[in-house]
Write a structure and sequence with these properties.
alpha/beta, globular, 226 residues, 4-stranded antiparallel sheet, 39% helix, single chain, 6-stranded mixed sheet, binds adenosine-5'-triphosphate
């Protein structure tokens, strides 16, 4: 589903992502972990086609993002790390507004919005999103990224800084989406959540990939070094 080869991102002469090779298979959840500034968001933005690599190639669904990102983006649901909302709208109005921007037929959009609000336990909310808790706001942003029923979800720290219940709810919801056949690439700080849902984990440090494997294998290889 995703293939990165020799991907490097420079900001002037600063190397944010350094010669990264990475693959994400169809139907898997791959987690990228690393401390602040490791290059997680930059990697996700490049894969989502929001910024171009300085060197290297990115293929998504077999298409070269340097040439066909407009086509591929229709199949990607991207959740940025920060996702401010229009706070003077209800969740439903907000999602309807975006569905119109995306050119979705209004009947389909309303059905999809109702389904998403229900699944994310945001239905029956007549409040404006400005009055929502941080967790509820994050769930609205997730619903927005899923409006067009994308095949590939690229989620930047979906549950970072949220209360434990909402955090687990989101993690379980992502697991459920994998069950529906979605491929998910996410970044996270919390190793426990990553271990709970991810098939494989990529650890990056200073923009370089240290390892990409199952948590079991990573743990074994770390153990064997002691
Ligand atoms: P965090 O967990 O804090 O979000 P991250 O692993 O997602 O960190 P990135 O946001 O990808 O890291 O940033 C990687 C490095 O690139 C950081 O040192 C950051 O300051 C730098 N960087 C990111 N975006 C830019 C930019 N637009 N211009 C210059 N430097 C940038």
């Amino acid at each position: 589903m995703i293939k990165l080869k020799g991907v490097t991102k420079l900001y002037k002469d600063f190397v944010a992502v350094d010669n990264l090779d990475l693959e994400v298979k169809e139907g898997e959840i791959l987690g990228i972990i690393g401390h602040n500034g490791a290059g997680k968001s930059t990697t996700l933005k490049m894969i989502a086609g929001l910024t171009a690599p300085t060197y290297g190639s990115i293929h998504v669904m077999g298409k070269d993002m340097a040439k066909e990102s407009t086509y591929v983006k229709r199949y990607i649901g991207y959740l940025p790390e920060e996702s401010p909302l229009y706070e003077n709208m209800t969740a439903s109005e907000y999602l309807l507004f975006f569905s119109e921007l995306y050119g979705m037929p209004s009947k389909d959009a309303k059905k999809r919005i109702d389904m998403l609000l229900k699944a994310l336990k945001l239905d029956e909310q007549n409040k404006l999103t400005g009055e929502f808790s941080k967790g509820m706001k994050r769930k609205v942003a997730i619903a927005r990224s899923l409006l067009h029923d994308p095949k590939l979800l690229i989620f930047d720290e979906p549950n970072s800084g949220l209360d434990p219940l909402t955090s687990f709810f989101i993690i379980d919801y992502l697991k459920n989406l994998k069950g529906q056949g979605k491929t998910i690439l996410l970044s996270a700080h919390n190793l426990f959540h990553v271990e709970y849902i991810c098939d494989r984990v990529a650890i990056i440090k200073g923009g370089k990939l240290l390892v990409c494997d199952t948590m079991d294998s990573i743990r074994k290889s770390l153990g064997s070094r002691e």
